[in-house]
C-alpha cells in the first residue's frame, strides 16, 4: 500500500466527501478517487457504499480506516525519530576558500562556526575562485567562495560581503594626493595585477573595458603582498579589493576610490543547485549575513 493513499483515505472518511478531502489536502479530486480505487483493487473489496452522496464506509472500509490511522501514526512517529537522528549527524563540511578572501572576511566567520559547532568537522581547501565551480560540480566541495559578478544557473548563491576595489599608487605617483579619480583617466597607467588563475583578473579586465580602455598590464603575480610592495616602490599601479588593501598596504602607498564607473566588489558563497543541503551547510550559511 502507498502511504499517501492511506492519508487520503483517512481524510475522506473524516470529511465524508471527496471534494472536501481534496480541498483540505490541496490535491485534485481525481487523485483522491484514484487512490480509493487503487486501495479497493488491492484489497479486493468495496470500501464505501456506492450511490451515496456522502462517503459512507463499508465494514471493510471501517477496518481499513482503523488500520490506516495506526499505520500513519506509526509512520509519522518513526519519521520524526529518523529526522532527529539525521539532524544529529554532523556531516563534515568541505569549504573552498580563495587564498585572499579568508584574511579579508571568512577567517572570523570560520572561527565563529568552529566555536559554535565544535562537533562538526570543517575542512578548508585553498582554491582560487576560477577553479571553484569544477570542484563543486565534481562533489569535492560542499560550499565555495567566489567573487561577483557570478551568474551560473547550476548554482545557488548568497552574497556574504560587499565592498569596492580601489586604485593603489605610490606616494610618489602623480595621483597620490587624490581621494577619488575617474576610472576612465587610467588608460595610460601601467598595471601590476594578479594572474589569470584568479577570477579577479577577469573581473578587473572587464571593469576596465567598462571604463573605456584595455589595461596595460606590465606584470602579473599570484602574491598580493608582492604586488602592493611593487606599487609602493612606484613600479606601477594596481586596482585591488579595498579590504585587502587596507590590511596590507605599505606606508609608502596610497589608495584612491574610483568613480565613472565605480568598481563594486563582493564575495559570494555558492553551492550546487541540485545538492542536498546538509545541516552542516545550513549552519554555515546561517552565519553569512
UniProtKB/TrEMBL annotation:
GO MF annotation list: DNA binding; DNA-binding transcription factor activity
Matching SUPFAM superfamilies: Periplasmic binding protein-like II, Winged helix' DNA-binding domain
Domain HTH lysR-type, chain residue ranges per copy: 1-58
UniProt keyword terms in alphabetical order: DNA-binding, Transcription, Transcription regulation
Entry superkingdom: Bacteria
PROSITE patterns: HTH_LYSR
Annotated GO CC locations: cytosol
Family under the similarity heading: Belongs to the LysR transcriptional regulatory family.
Protein name (database record): HTH lysR-type domain-containing protein
UniProt source species: Peptoniphilus porci
Taxonomic lineage: Bacteria, Bacillati, Bacillota, Tissierellia, Tissierellales
Amino acid at each position: 500500500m502507498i502511504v499517501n493513499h492511506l492519508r487520503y483515505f483517512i481524510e475522506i472518511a473524516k470529511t465524508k466527501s471527496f471534494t472536501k478531502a481534496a480541498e483540505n489536502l490541496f490535491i485534485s479530486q481525481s487523485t483522491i478517487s484514484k487512490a480509493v480505487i487503487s486501495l479497493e483493487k488491492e484489497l479486493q473489496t468495496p470500501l464505501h457504499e456506492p450511490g451515496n452522496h456522502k462517503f459512507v464506509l463499508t465494514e471493510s472500509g471501517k477496518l481499513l480506516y482503523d488500520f490506516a490511522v495506526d499505520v500513519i501514526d506509526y509512520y509519522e512517529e518513526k519519521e520524526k525519530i529518523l529526522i532527529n537522528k539525521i539532524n544529529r549527524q554532523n556531516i563534515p563540511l568541505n569549504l573552498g576558500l580563495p587564498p585572499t578572501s579568508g584574511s579579508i572576511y571568512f577567517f572570523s566567520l570560520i572561527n565563529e562556526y568552529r566555536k559554535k559547532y565544535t562537533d562538526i568537522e570543517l575542512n578548508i581547501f585553498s582554491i582560487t575562485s576560477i577553479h571553484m565551480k569544477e570542484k563543486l560540480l565534481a562533489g569535492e566541495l560542499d560550499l565555495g567562495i567566489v567573487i561577483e559578478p557570478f551568474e551560473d544557473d547550476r548554482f545557488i548563491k548568497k552574497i556574504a560581503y560587499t565592498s569596492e576595489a580601489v586604485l593603489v599608487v605610490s606616494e610618489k605617483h602623480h595621483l597620490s594626493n587624490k581621494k577619488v579619480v575617474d576610472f576612465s583617466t587610467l588608460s595610460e597607467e601601467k598595471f601590476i595585477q594578479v594572474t589569470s588563475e584568479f577570477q579577479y583578473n577577469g573581473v578587473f579586465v572587464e571593469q576596465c573595458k567598462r571604463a573605456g580602455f584595455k589595461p596595460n598590464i606590465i606584470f602579473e603575480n599570484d602574491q598580493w603582498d608582492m604586488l602592493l610592495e611593487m606599487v609602493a616602490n612606484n613600479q606601477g599601479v594596481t586596482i585591488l579589493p579595498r579590504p585587502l588593501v587596507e590590511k596590507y598596504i605599505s606606508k609608502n602607498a596610497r589608495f584612491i576610490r574610483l568613480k565613472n564607473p565605480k568598481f563594486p566588489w563582493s564575495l559570494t558563497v555558492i553551492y550546487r543547485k541540485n545538492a542536498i543541503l546538509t545541516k552542516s551547510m545550513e549552519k554555515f550559511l546561517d552565519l553569512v549575513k
